[in-house]
Predict the structure.
Amino acid sequence: MSKLPKEHQFIDFSDYGRPLARIIANSLKTTKFTPVDVTVAFVISGLIGVFCIFKGYYFAAAFFLILKSILDAADGELARIKETPSYTGRFLDSVSDIILNFIIFITIWFLTDTSLFLTFLAFFGIQLQGTLYNYYYVILRNRFDGDTTSRIFEDKTPIALPGEKQKNVNILFFLYKAFYGVFDKIIYALDKNASEGKTLPNWLMSLISTFGLGFQLLLISILLVLDLKEIIIPFFIGYSVLIFVFIAIRKIFY
């Protein structure tokens, strides 16, 4: 099931794993496995990928990082299929993503001669990239009655949905705000009127989707397989310049 009506769907370069994610979700439809179980599985896959990076098994690392992206999509698909949306799953997914991203970049720093400052700059950059993409994407989804579990502005703790505990939502939302709050504030400050603008065209959303975590992990995987791990950190620093390009296009034309 798509998060958007058909006429507003765009080619999402970060969502290449969706077809396999749907197969996985459908296979789990009648089982006791929950979306949170799938989220835990993608965390495990990501950690195995990090271990493989550390050991120099780059093809294996690429496999597990891409598998992580597929499972990352499968948890949401399973939630929609089972009709069990939850803020617990939504925030656990995001918190897990940022922790894994940090571990990946610290591992790359440890294995290369890149400075710790540049490593943090690259990590900060990819988080801003992902935040901009999610910001525009959630605006689009909310505008056209797509998936509304995610909100444009995560400014207060949501009320737990049926089947989840408010305590879990409270804890995970606190962690979400602690990890993502600064990135949300920066992107909002850069383009606070985005939700009032015109609908972004599909071609532009496709370009911005290259900021999605799935595409970021794909790029990291390709660079690892090509034994170019030394350029991963400088690449993502440079790629972050496009944040300002996309925001400028949005402000000028839409």
